[in-house]
Amino acid sequence: MEFTKGHGTGNDFVVLPDPDGTLDLTPGLVAALCDRRRGLGGDGVLRVVRAAKHPDGVALAGEAEWFMDYWNSDGSFAEMCGNGARVFVRYLLATGLATPTGGTLPVATRAGLVRARVDGDTIAVEMRRPRLYDASSAVLGGLTLPGTAVDVGNPHLVCALPAGIDLADLDLTRAPEFDPRVFPHGVNVEFTAPADPVDGTDDHVLMRVYERGSAETLSCGTGACAVAAVALRDATRDTGVVAVDVPGGRLTVTVTADSCWLAGPAVLVATGTLTLP
Q: Which of 9, 77, 118, 184 could lock 249 by a disulfide, CB 3.0 to 4.6 Å apart?
């Protein structure tokens, strides 16, 4: 099997080309590929399949040729992955499988259609505008942290740290606890702290994340969008540009009246072949 390894601000993925959807991709195989000691290692798998050839993508086949079949590293599905979408687009462009039309490229996902825009090393993807819909809380190491539930096509819980608690000191080796009544299918939990202003933005936030199905990752694109939306709300703004610093680098989120753009680097680092177990 051919593979490519790529990342977006340290959020890394195994990319598997399967245009006609013939690969028998199973949870066990995904987990084996993402194993960092016995496999290739990654936060997830991106299967590159034509939308018309995948049951979850066929409804969008008239709008996008390619479907991003995204799996978490534990073999579970996810509706959307912002960094994954940017790496997915980088792969399509690098391999000549797609070219932008009018400067944009559509991609089908389980969360619906996303559009991508390419500017050199930076790839931006347009997703739905984050929807802030409930108050909830996370429990981490005996500490209860109030937060905001956010829908970005997948579920998030954004928790701002109180004064006196350093973001770097959080122990994210274990999953935070959350209210299953609010998040019956699990949730990505973001912890945030304010940062110094950045030119050209309306706000600047530091973030760490524990992703369902992948544990702590160096970056989460949809998580950055959720964090930006909460930061703008707290600043009594409906729209704006927010710089979100994650352990793997910086993402820029632009929230408009009806959508959300996630921008940052997307890099392909290796290609090769692998032997299936």
A: 9
- Catalytic residue among 81, 159, 225, 260, which? 81
Q: What is the pTM of this model?
A: 0.93
CATH of 131-257, picked from 3.10.310.10, 1.10.357.10, 3.40.50.720, 3.90.550.10, is: 3.10.310.10
Q: Is 147 annotated as a binding residue?
A: no
- Over residues 183-226, the pLDDT tens digits come to 999 999 999 999 999 999 999 999 999 999 999 999 999 999 99
Please tell me the total number of residues recorded for the chain in this structure: 277
Strands 44-50 and 11-17: parallel
Q: Do 270 and 4 contact (CB within 8 A), yes or no?
A: yes
Residue 57 is assigned to a ligand binding site: no
Q: Would you say 101 and 118 are in contact if contact means Cβ atoms under 8 Å apart?
A: no
